[in-house]
Amino acid sequence: MQIAIVLYPGFTALDFIGPYEVLRWLPDAEVRFVWHEPGPVVADSGVLVIGATHSFDETPGPDIVLVPGGFTTMEHARDERVLDWLRRTHQSTTWTSSVCSGSVLLAAAGLLDGKRATSHWAAVQSLRAFGVTPVGDERIVRSDERIVTCAGVSAGIDLGLWLAGEIGGEAKARAIQLSMEYDPQPPFDSGHMSKASTATKAAATALMARELASPPALKATVGLLWDHAIRRARSRK
Domain DJ-1/PfpI, which positions (predicted)? Predict the structure, then answer.
């Protein structure tokens, strides 16, 4: 079973490390980190570097595709090579999935048209621009028979376990969960917008805005939304 995890410059590390740590334990799992070409890919921190093991061309038919999020998602959602690969591979995947703002890439590829999906709370409403119904109160959203999206960052671990249950059965998923000793008991109960105080929401929003409101990020977001608006207008003719 071939599992292709998309890496791109600016990805968020936990978005892919979490589900990777789960999925690698599935029977006969062959995990590939894919990008335009094999080589180092720098995470959003600018410090962590992960090696892409295979190119898109070398990975034409994975069984599972997983797309992580990151502060550069909007930029890469304009990369037609990425979008074309997602469209082509989705034709034969068992599961096409995303963590965090990775769902924006699936939406930009047209895979979520008219469907429900989720993302990080800071990105979930942007899905509306692609004809997607955003879901902000569910950690994992099954968009259709073969597409599943999850909320931000740490939710990727839950998604990995969910996929493990679907693929290997509940007993296998439970064993993987115990092997990871995944029993989250955070010291603060502020991990969802519905639980956080007003002050915590403001602080978290300001923290995210430092990256999301940077000139390159804003330029990429405006460009992506403009591209999509033009494409929709032309399709009406």
Answer: 2-161
